[in-house]
Amino acid sequence: MTTADQSKQLASSEPVAGSDDELLRDLTSGSGTARDSVTVGAWTALSRGTGVVRVVVIGAVLGPTFLGNTYQLTNSLPNLIYYGFLAGSLFVSLLVPALVQHIDKHRPKDVARVSGGFLGIALVLLAMLAPVAVVLLPELLRVTSLGGVGLSGSELQDSGQIGVTRLLILLTIPQVFLYAVVGSATAVMYAHRRFALAAAAPLVENLGIILVLVLVGMTYGTGKELGSQSTGEVLLLGLGSTGAVALHAAIQWWGARRSGILLRPRAGWRDPEVLVTIRKALRSVSQAGLLALQLLALLLVSNRVAGGTVAIQMALNFYYLPIALAATPVALALLPRLSRLHQSDSTDEFTGTFIQGLGLALFMAIPAAVGFVVLADPIAHTIAAGQMASPDGVRMIAAGLAALALGLVGETTFYVTTQAAYARGDTRTPLVSMALQAGICLTLCGLAAFARPSLLLPAIGAAYAVAAVIGGAHLFLQMSRGWPRRELWASLGRIAVGSVVMAVPAYFSAHLISSNLGGRPGQALALVAGAAVGVLTFGVTQLVLRSPELAWLTAGLRGRRTASQETG
Question: The whole model's pTM is what?
Answer without folding.
Answer: 0.69
